[in-house]
Each structure stands twice: as structure tokens, then as C-alpha cells.
Amino acid sequence: SNDPLVVFTPSGKRGRFPVGTPVLTAARQLGVDLDSVCGGRGICSKCQITPSYGEFSKHGVTVADDALSEWNKVEQRYKDKRGLIDGRRLGCQAKIEKDVVIDVPPESQVHKQVVRKRAEARDIVMNPSIRLFYVEVEEPDMHKPSGDLERLCEALKKQWDVKGVKADLHILRQMQPALRKGAWKVTVAVHLGVDRQSPRIMHIWPGYYEGSIYGLAVDLGSTTIAAHLCDLKSGEVLASSGIMNPQIRFGEDLMSRVSYAMMNKGGDQEMTRAVRDGMNALFVQISKEAQIDQALIMDAVFVCNPVMHHLFLGIDPFELGQAPFALATSDALALEARDLDLNLHPTARVYLLPCIAGHVGADAAAVALSEAPDKSEDLVLVVDVGTNAEILLGNNDKVLACSSPTGPAFEGAQISSGQRAAPGAIERVEINPITKEPRFRVIGSEIWSDEDGFEQSIATTGITGICGSGIIEVIAEMRLAGLLDASGLIGSAEQTGSVRCVPEGRTNAYLLWDGSAEGGPRITVTNPDIRAIQMAKAALYSGARLLMDKIGVDTVDRVVLAGAFGAHISAKHAMVLGMIPDCQLDKVTSAGNAAGTGARIALLNTNARREIEDTVRQIEKIETAVEPRFQEHFVNASAIPNSADPFPILES
Ligand code: FES
Question: What is the pLDDT of residue 63?
């Protein structure tokens, strides 16, 4: 045909269209992902495109403007009122005249990708469950009587192909004034549900609504509650904020909270109230920070461990405190925020990811969604280290999961000079293998300690203790420097030739820092400290090892360390201790807060929710408590690095 050829980039989709066809129409016919909220009326500017010939754009110079029809009035009006970047056109207004290559910039794509910073991480494809639609509704007519809602739904069907829309009473109450105020033009926020199966109007604005709507991705941990506030139109994270979990006053760890519920009548309800109150306070804080109206938060995704899951929902966690650790439900839950007393939009939706097993929660499911072991070619071990280590091992063939009770030692608890990772904590340690002298770095100070120059820097920061990553490093360094044997015993000054090995109780300790002359602390690493870390790391390793047995392998291809702790420990030191199985060091990476990222993926992409529900159903759950080999692995893994399993890569 002689019709002009139109090629869209980056999709590469192409077709011939009659002269005068609007670009948006061509895009729709070809299935090109080009956004539109106003339905081609020149109001929303979501349909912006850049005409260009060939693949190499000429740095903002419009070379192909003449290939689209004359700048038209609607665009001019838009440009005068709101501005339009040079070279950009409104896709619904610009019409095709000659052969043209049209670029759809990322911000004009509905399913735009939210880029994640880590090289190995998949980008997030936008597909939120709630979307905005601008519609023109037919005016009522006495001769064809029908309700305003019916005509609104008809318009949504005709103009947006959204069928079977329902509306709650609260929408019915606002709808008639909104329709009339907007002169029969309104913007509606519609919760589309999976596959647009059960669309529901959540909000109505007269005319074209310029603003955005928001969602929350919440990682509800036993110690902290962290949230990301996201723009549901752009996918952007507008603010991230966290608070301590107010349930801490009922017990530091999960089991003490379960027993609080058992020992105190109504104790579970008290804790449910505490966590919801805390969460509402966090929502106020994060909305302030992002300067948005809290009532425009319409969607929220929560990830948490099973005990927090039950306490948040108001379910007594009693059954989770005893074998066989039955969950009330392991399925994903789609609820309304008001059922959970959350102060968000009046009909805000809440989604909880599925739990994997009685000990492996929705937080682990979120890690699986973020790190996608089920899509990995090579065998990947993913560990989320907290007071319970949640462990996933697998590849695109199968994935196994278990949890292992590591206890709080990795967080600096149970350690004589231990503290949380905060300014003043020693976080990095090196010990010279010849002189056995340490140098270290303190959180809040950029520089490493050494003979000269350091004293001054600590005078301003002050050294207060040693955090989880610091304790891992110092113990591994002690082992490498020959101050510590494989069983975890610290040698004496005579044995090691280091005056820093001092007697303490019936064993020895290593003096890392003595600030007592200046009124500061004396920081030693004691044998009980080492014992606590040995127990914790043995629990972590034996969980991983058990999963490796089940798959029938002795090594893994990759290790991903998730969680705040995983972000701070050094791979080398973790391996020297035998926390994680032997692996190429450059194949050990940190994923940061993968549970929070998984929550964000589920918030921004409804398909991901279904995907993870399927994945979780297929994950094979291993209960460490009933596996006889777990004990054996645990005993072997108490040695540093291990008394039975080889670490050939580490040794070479
Ligand atoms: Fe809204 Fe073009 S589709 S301005």
C-alpha cells in the first residue's frame, strides 16, 4: 500500500496507516504501550512521543517534526498552559503524514520499567492494580431514563474497555456532585483486580485529575517496621521511612511475644493494637515526608514473618508457638485497609504476600519475588539473616526453603561489647597476621584506625561497642591471624605472641580497643562471644547445608545475602567463619532489603502477585526441626569454618 510506514521504538512494532491517523490510534492498533489517561482529548499529556528517523536520536533536535502533521491547536493550548519539552508531541493529537519512526519515551509507557540499581536484579515492570481513567459521561435524558452510575460504567466500558465496574456506597454519595461539577467529565480511580476481573471505583474527581495516587510497600519486621511510599503512576519511591515495632515492649523476640499472648488474657489483641497504632503513626510520618495527602494512599502491600502476620491480622499466634506450627492460612490475602484499622484511603486495598510455611513467612516469599531463584539458571542460595535465618536454595528447576533459628547474636545481642549498628559501633576489623595488631573502622567515622591519626577521629565520634558485622569480621580475622583455633578457643599471650590476648574468666579474650584511660569502654572479644557467634553461624550453615543435601550438591553457584545485616557483612569473613557454604567470593552478593523490594514489586505489578502465589505453591518446604541430619550438620558447623565439610575455594 502507499500508506505511510510507521515504526515505533523501542518496541520495533510497525505498520502502515492512512494519512491523518493519530499516533495514539496507530499505537493502539499495533499494541504499542503508549499511555493515556484522558483517552486522547489532549488533557493528560501521558501520550507524549518523540518523532525521530532511525535509531539514533539527534540529541533533542527535532528532525522529523515535518513527518507529523502541523502543530495543532490542542497541542498549542496544552503547550501554552503546561509546557511541553521541545520535540515532544502529544500522541493523541499528532497525525501521521509520511513514513516516520516514533519513539515512546519511558514515562509515556503504561508498563514502564522501574530500574533497580543492582546489575543482577530484574527491573520492575509497572502494572499497578489501581489506575486512573478520565471519562466523558453521557448526560441524563428524561426520555432514556438511566442512573448516573450506569452511564458512568457505560462510558468506562466504551472509552476504556473496563467492563462490569462496581462502586461502593461511598462513591455513589460523591458521584452526582462530581459529575455535575466536572460538566460530565470525571476522573476515576479504578481498582482493576486480577485480569480486570472485578473492577471497582475507588475514587472520583470532577474533571481531569492532575495529581497522583499512592501505594505503600511495608516490611513488617519483629524489630522494625519499614515502608516505601510509591507513586502508583510513575512507580517512583517518594519516601522511605521506618519505626521500631512497638510490640518490642511485649518481648524482644517472636517466641516471647507468642508466650506473652499465651500468658496474658487479651495479650494478642494488645499486640495487634500496638502494631496497627505504630503503623498508622508511620503512615502519618511518611506522608508528611513525601508531602502527600494520606487519604490518597489507595493500595498497600505487607510482608512479614508468620507471627507478625498473625498478630497484624488479629489472629492469635498460639499455634505457631508449637509443633506442627500450623498457620491460620498460608495463602495470600486481599483485604481492605479499614478491616485492619489502617488510616489510609477509605477503601484502600491491602495485600499480604503468601507465607511459605509455619516458620517461613511472607517476608521470605517477598525475597523470593525480588531475587527470583526460580528463574535462575545457576544454583543460588538466598539467605535473609535476622533473628531467624530464612533460606532459599534452588534454580529454575526447583526451589527449597527452610528457616533456621540463628538467634540475635548477628545483631550484636548476646555479645559482651555488642550493640546495634549505630554511630560508635566498630563495623570493620582487620588484624595484622604478623603483629596481631588490629585496625578498624567505626560507624560515623570515614577512616580506619591506625597508629597515628585515629585517636583524633574517635575523639569526635567515640567508640561505644561492636556491631554484628564487626563481630563477624573480628572473629574471622582472629582465626586468620592464628589467635583462635578451629574449635573457637582463644590462645594465651604465650601461645599467640600477642599481648592483646588477655586472661578473662577461665579462658582468654582478645583486647580490641582500650578506651578506659579516656573514660571510654574496654572492648574485648571473649570466648562466650565467639561461642554465641558459632551457634548462630552453625544454625545458618546447617539450614543451607540441609537444603543442599536435598538437592544433592556440595557447592552452590551463587550466594545472595539479603537483609540489612547481609548488606554490611563481608563475604570473605562470612566464609572464613563458615557461615555460608564454599563459593567463589565474587559470586557472593548482597541484595539489601530484598523483602522490602519484593513488597514494592508486588505493589507496582499485580501480575507479580499471581506469579509469587504460584511460585510459593511450588516451593518445597523443609522443616529443619524434624530432619535428623540437621543436628549432625550443626555440630560440624560449630567449628570454624567446619569440621567435616571442605571449603576448597576458600582455602585456595
Ligand atoms: Fe491524554 Fe493525549 S491521551 S493528552
Answer: 43
| Single-letter amino acid, residue 181 | K
- Chain-wide mean pLDDT for the chain? 88
- pLDDT tens digit string along 356-380? 988 889 999 999 999 999 999 999 9
Residue 39 CA: which ligand 1 atom is closest?
Answer: 3
CA of 160 to the centre of ligand 1 (A): 13
Residue nearest to atom 3 of ligand 1 (CA): 40
Determine the residue of 23, 35, 38 to mutate for testing ligand 1's pocket, defined as the one with the most ligand atoms within 8 A of the Cβ atom: 38
Domains and CATH numbers, the chain: 5-108 (3.10.20.30), 124-206 (3.10.20.880), 217-352 (3.30.420.480), 363-408+533-651 (no CATH), 410-526 (no CATH)
Any idea which residue has 508468620 for its cell?
306
Check whether 84 has a pLDDT greater than 70: yes
The model's pLDDT over 302-349, given as tens digits with 9 standing for 90+, comes to: 999 898 999 999 999 888 888 888 899 999 999 999 999 999 999 999
Please indicate whether residue 27, judged by its CB atom, sits closer than 6 Å to ligand 1. Answer: no
What Cα–Cα distance (Å) separates residue 472 from each residue in 106, 266, 475, 570? Answer: 43, 40, 5, 9
Output the DSSP codes for 507-538.
Answer: EEEEEEEE-GGGT--EEEEEHHHHHHHHHHHH
Ligand 1 atom closest to Cα of residue 78: 4
Q: How far is the CA of 48 from the centre of ligand 1 (A)?
A: 8
Categorize the per-residue pLDDT at 59 as very low, low, confident or very high, splitting at 50, 70 and 90.
very low
Q: Is the CB of 108 under 6 A from ligand 1?
A: no
